[in-house]
């Protein structure tokens, strides 16, 4: 079975606390754990960001049960008002969001 939980916390030491908690779950053998800092997913190479998002979710499906922790998700999931130019690079956020939403729905 699959469970999705979205949690928003202030930007402080939350990442370290949650990672520590999830590492304990992983050590107990109850589930695998993958931590991703979404700001590192963005790439200047066209299509690379989308491939990374898809690969992370593919790995999570293969390791099921798995806790997938996406830190700084607002980097890829937030709507940017300055986005939308004619160039492909200006639309990378839109493509990454689409891949992220598709991957979540595919779980």
What are the SSEs and their pairings?
Blueprint: H1 14-27, E1 32-37, H2 48-62, E2 66-71, H3 74-77, H4 92-106
Parallel strand pairs: 1-2
Helix pairs in contact: 2-4
Describe the structure concisely for a colleague.
By secondary structure, the protein is α+β, with helices and mostly antiparallel strands. Helices cover 45% and strands 11% of the residues. Strand 1, helix 2 (48-62) and strand 2 form a beta-alpha-beta unit.
Characteristic terms for this protein:
single chain, 107 residues, alpha+beta, two-stranded parallel sheet, 4 helices, 2 strands
Sheet with the most strands, sense and barrel status: 2 strands, parallel
**What structural class results from the helix and strand content?**
alpha+beta
SSE string: HEHEHH
> Radius of gyration from the CA trace?
15 Å
- Number of helix segments? 4
Q: How far do the termini sit from each other? A: 10 Å
